[in-house]
Design brief:
With about 120 residues, this protein is mainly alpha-helical. The protein has six helices and two strands. It has one domain.
C-alpha cells in the first residue's frame, strides 16, 4: 500500500492487476500508462475500468461499424452510477471516446473528433 502511494506521488500510475480480455492483441497496459503520462493524465482505477469497457464494446461490436454516438451512449449508460458521460469527461478531458480509445489501443470513430474544434466525444 505504501509503495502504491509512493508511485502515485512520483507520478507513476500503477498498472492494474486485472486482465483485459477484450484488449487488442498488440495492446499492453504499460503503453496506456505511458501515453497517459504524455497527455498529462495519471491513470486511476476509474480510467482502467473505462479502458476495459471501451475494449469490450469494440470487441462485441466488431462485426459492424462503430458509431460514435452509439459508443457515447453505451459509455453513458455503463457509468451511470458514477455520473455517466459527465464523469467520463472529468477523467478523460480530451473526450471519453477520443482520448479513451487512444488509451485503450483502439481507433476512435471518425465522429469522435473534429479537426476544427478538437475532441467532441
Amino acid at each position: 500500500m505504501l509503495e502504491h502511494s509512493l508511485q502515485e506521488l512520483r507520478g507513476f500510475a500503477p498498472t492494474p492487476l486485472v486482465d483485459f480480455p477484450y484488449a487488442p492483441f498488440d495492446w499492453e497496459p504499460e503503453a496506456a500508462r505511458q501515453l497517459a503520462l504524455k497527455e498529462g493524465l495519471m491513470l486511476t482505477p476509474e480510467h482502467w475500468e473505462a479502458i476495459g469497457a471501451l475494449q469490450e464494446y469494440f470487441a462485441r461490436n466488431a462485426d459492424s461499424a462503430i458509431h460514435g454516438r452509439a459508443l457515447h451512449d453505451a459509455l453513458d449508460e455503463h457509468f451511470h452510477r458514477q455520473g455517466g458521460i459527465k464523469f467520463l469527461y472529468r477523467i478523460f478531458p480530451g473526450g471519453p471516446v477520443a482520448q479513451g480509445c487512444r488509451m485503450a489501443g483502439l481507433k476512435a470513430p471518425a465522429s469522435a473528433a473534429d479537426q476544427n474544434f478538437g475532441s467532441v466525444m
